[in-house]
Amino acid sequence: MDKRFFFEKYGLSERDLERYLGAALAAGGDYADLYFEYLTSTSLSLDESMVKSASQGISAGCGVRVVTGERTGYAYTDDLAPEKILHAARTAALIASGPAKTPVVSLKDQSRPSLYPVSNAASDAELYKKVELVFRADKAARAYDSRIKEVRASYADELRRILVIGSDGTFAEDVQPLSRMSVFVIARDGEVSAKGNSGGGGRNKFEIFLTEKTPEHFAKEAARQAILQLTAVPCPAGEMEVVLGPGWPGVLLHEAIGHGLEADFNRKKTSAFSGLLGKRVASDKCTVVDNGTLNERRGSLNVDDEGNTTNNTMLIEKGILKGYMADKLSARLMGLPNTGNGRRESYEHIPMPRMTNTYMLAGDDLPEDIIKSVKRGLYAVNFGGGQVDITNGKFVFAASEAYLIEDGKITAPVKDATLIGSGPDVLKLVSMVGNDLQLDEGVGTCGKDGQSVPVGVGIPTLKIDRMTVGGTGSAA
Amino acid sequence: MATTVTSAELDLRELTAGVVKRATALGATAVEAVVSEGSEFSTVVRLGEVETLKESGSRALGVRVFVGHHTANTSTSDLSPAGVEQLVRGAIELAKITSEDPMAGIPEAEQQGQIAGELGLYYDDVYSLSNEERIERARRAEKAALAVDPRLTNSEGGTFDASIGRKVLANSNGFVGGYRSSYCSISAVPIASDKAGNMQRDYWYSVARTLAKLESPEEVGRIAAERTLRRLGARKVKTQKVPIVFDRQTAGALLGHIFEAVNGDAIYRHASFLAGKLGQKTFGSNLTVIDDGTIAGGFGTRPFDGEGVPTRRTTVIENGELKSYLLNTYTARKLGLATTGNASRGLAGTPGIGNGNFYLQSGEKSQEEIIRGVKQGLLVTEFLGFGVNLVTGDFSRGASGMWIENGELAYPVEEITVAGNLGEMFSNLAEIGSDLIWRGAVACPTLRIEGMTIAGE
Fold first, then answer.
1. Which of A11, A246, B128, B138 has its CA 20 to 30 A from that of B1?
2. B305 and B168, same domain (yes or no)
3. Cβ of B418 under 8 Å from any chain A Cβ?
4. What is the mean pLDDT of chain B?
5. Which chain A residues are within 8 Å of B392, Cβ to Cβ?
6. Set of chain A residues whose Cβ sits within 8 Å of the Cβ of B400
7. Does B419 touch chain A (CB under 8 A)?
8. The pLDDT value given to residue B199
9. What is the pLDDT of residues A192-227, one digit of tens each?
10. Which of helix, strand or coil describes residue A95?
């Protein structure tokens, strides 16, 4: 691993770190940490068969946090000169008002998992190879059907180096690669227009875009959706049986229960799931985990942004609520295990409990049996984003590819529609769980309190006995 | 230009001028440099105790270069001479891999400039308070909310935020300009629970460019409490078609979709249901929509846009006719039109399109009168989710609000969706309220829309 990056680039020494943490704890406090980040990013975008834009950026900084009880002081600097970091530390220290504490600074790195490539991450590939990807996507999308009129393709990667030093002896360095391709197309047939989009990636080597997740794969998928949507009929409105396809529709879990199980909301008792540990929150067919330890996944991390190793955390086991996702602060205040879910968007942000890869384990049902069991309902296989109101538990997610199910058969494609439900109830209505668990292709970005972080989701094919579908057509 | 150029701004002007000069020396045929710096403060007080206190400043630089008709851009937070050199060289190197695009370029010199006069964008009083005073405002907002009713038992807190920023833009066609801006805001997010333990949360806020115009913490807290309390006991309603009234917040969100649909990027890519509709009577005669980047003190006001073109007032829709798209230099060239001074420019990436103060011209009736005219219908006060397809205009979002019966608000409603098509929805504006109030850069009075579908039970 590319160790000691910050020590070499910025001439950091153990004494500097002691000085910074000492300043942070000058007025007391339970805990202080320093979060150094150095992020390089590249992005390319193609439109009208031209690479119209190429961007590269460098962003570096240090965030200082002081925690005392439930209070957090935070300050950051994008200048890593010692006096600037000291100033940030003194600013963060304003939260506390007591006698100074002496930090325990350790530069002993523990052994860490190595879930993603570093020396040959996607960001290391030569630029012309990245350019080729977007041209290939353009060509493949246009070749799919002459009705594909507009194609936009983009490629983006980043390499994020972090160093976390805590007053409790925490010392963690990590190098986190992330890359992604996206394809967006518009199909036109006479007066009718429709869109399709697809994309994916992860914390992977560049080669994955040449083997598994090729530009052609994403381009064909986007084009297929757009052509299909040209003939979509209005989506019915009202309550009906809903079957979710495997993979990205797992955004249901993310919205319906994921956020509600983040420990901060439960510590503050502002979540509809507060106080439900050990209680039934889903049918006994549902087992849901948050797993930050999967190889090369978009939501995976060797260590979280507080320097803790990530975990495979059981959230719901056979329908019973087993655990919350915690960061240092909530674990300490709630007396819960720290699950390594403390994440932040950048050095400018205070960490909080966030999801990694959240998915439901496979069940026993055959996907075709699930479809067959539905007399009249909706089969939804692709979604845009979703949102949840943590407090009352209501959540939505927007289907971008869905079909009617009539007498156990998949029939007409329907137009975009939002599905709405109640988080604490919806998983109790899961009556069949497929044997076909899939994780998404690596496109998810989750927003919370103005902070965006990359995440993964997944489900097997699921049958939900009743959900409200927000179409404009007559009720199914 | 009326604003005085301070030494801090001079430093940034020198920095951007240096970047333009260096890039030109290295072979760029056109260059645009932007630098922004800012300070932010925020605090959250929850259940009377300070929960977070955050304060910081930052500064970063972005450059866009053209080598002939090839373009690329880079950004950095490293403003050391070595960092700046790397930024400029990186951009020129990167431009080699992009395609030749004859439309790419910065504005013509004669298009550039900035509007004169005091725009009221910056007041240093937003940063004048001590930390104790800032915390006190957040505390007062939360306290006022929780004091309204004993059912308000919990809270996500009261907040006070302040920020100031400065932006300087320079390009190789001779433009150089800069401006400062300031914001401050107060909010409260109380939580109410009923006897069964069901919880509801809502919020209210005030945002202003000067402390003098910020609503009192007590006022913000009181409204937040009322909005939260009225949601207790919310239920689903049946799937049906009824008149729907959108309050200023949700109507503003709908109008935001119209901005996205007249955005030149979406238009030239045919990614908007309004592409090709210029000059056509697309909506009802009661619809007039304006974008004005010049209103003094406005949240969408700037002296020049992200490319150094003066901002202006553009009539987007007049009496139902689509009169203008909103454009930057590139999208204008693509469409054979002139820029409307709507370029938006962050540090990284190519300029997009941003709105000025974007609003729907108000009508005659108050919200109360509009509600009184509805026999059976829904007042929507919040959206959930983002179910909008701009290509087709299809709209389907989660919603909550109040049921209207015989012209009166009857009971709260939740876990429903409202769906329609944006083109049809804005053609079916049965009523437009008189209550246009600026709480951001997009403002819309209360709207009553016919023909939408509620999906519920």
1. B128
2. no
3. yes
4. 96
5. 193-195, 415-416
6. 394
7. yes
8. 95
9. 999 999 999 999 999 999 999 999 999 999 999 999
10. helix
Q: Are residues B216 and B290 in the same domain?
A: no
Chain A residues within an 8 Å CB radius of B97: 44, 51, 54, 127-128, 131
- In angstroms, the CA B457 to CA B452 distance is 16
The pLDDT of B103-114, averaged and rounded, is 97
- Beta bridge partner(s), residue A176: A160
Domain limit, last residue, from B202, B228, B254: B228
Q: Is A139 exposed, middle or buried (0-12, 13-18, 19+ CB in 10 A)?
A: middle
B:62-81 residues touching chain A, CB 8 A cutoff: 71-78
Q: How confident is the model at residue A475 (pLDDT cuts 50, 70, 90)?
A: low
Comparing C-alpha atoms, which of B314, B36, B351 is closest to residue B163?
Answer: B36
Angstrom distance (rounded) from CA A109 to CA A301: 16
Q: Is residue B160 part of a domain?
A: yes
Q: Are residues B329 and B407 in the same domain?
A: yes
| Of A110, A138, A327, the residue nearest A219 (C-alpha) | A138
A444 contacts: CB under 8 Å, gap ≥ 6: A248, A251, A254, A298, A299, A454, A455, A456, A457
Q: Does B191 touch chain A (CB under 8 A)?
A: yes
The answer, yes or no, to whether ipTM is higher than 0.95 is: no
Domain coverage including residue B52: 7-228
Q: Which of A35, A38, A49, A56 to mutate to test the interface with B (most CBs of B within 10 A)?
A: A56
Name chain A contacts of B86, Cβ cutoff 8 Å. Answer: 58
- Judged on CB neighbours under 10 Å (0-12, 13-18, 19+), A127 is middle
Task: Answer whether B419 sits within 8 Å of A470, measured CB to CB.
Answer: yes
Give dist(CA A416, CA A472) in Å, integer: 10
Question: Is pLDDT of A476 > 60?
Answer: no
- Our CA-based measurement puts residue B50 at a distance from the nearest CA of chain A, in whole angstroms, of 6
In tens, the pLDDT along A350-402 reads 999 999 999 999 999 999 999 999 999 999 999 988 999 999 999 999 999 99
Which among B344, B234, B342 has a CA at the least distance from the CA of B293?
Answer: B342
Domain ranges of chain A: 123-157+178-229, 237-470
Q: What is the pLDDT of residue A472?
A: 86
A97, with CB counted inside 10 A (0-12, 13-18, 19+), is: exposed
Q: Among A268, A395, A471, whose Cβ lies nearest the Cβ of B419?
A: A471
**In this complex, which of B386, B391, B415 lies closest to A468 when CB atoms are compared?**
B415
Q: Which of residues 60-89 of A touch B (CB under 8 A)?
A: 60-61, 70-78, 88
Q: How far is A111 from chain B (nearest CA, A)?
A: 32
What's the mean pLDDT in A175-195? Answer: 96
Q: Give the residue carrying structure tokens 């937003």.
A: B126
Cα gap A63→A164, rounded to integer Å: 10
Whether the CB-CB separation of A390 and A255 falls below 8 Å is answered with no
Which of these, A64, A423, A438, lies nearest to A260 by C-alpha position?
A423
CA distances from A166 to A107, A197, A340, A367, B181 (A): 10, 42, 15, 48, 36
DSSP string, A210-252: TTTS-HHHHHHHHHHHHHHHTTPBPPBEEEEEEEEPSSGGGHH
Distance from CA of B119 to the nearest CA of A (A): 29
Domain harbouring B137, CATH code: 3.30.2290.10
Q: Does 3.40.50.2300 match the CATH number of domain A123-157+178-229?
A: no
- CB proximity A155 to B under 8 Å: no
Q: Which helix (H) or strand (E) covers residue B81, if one does?
A: helix B81-95
Strand segments, DSSP code E, in B68-151 are: 70-76
- Nearest C-alpha in B relative to A78: B58
A384 interfaces chain B, CB cutoff of 8 Å: yes
A350 vs B52, B239, B391: nearest CB: B52
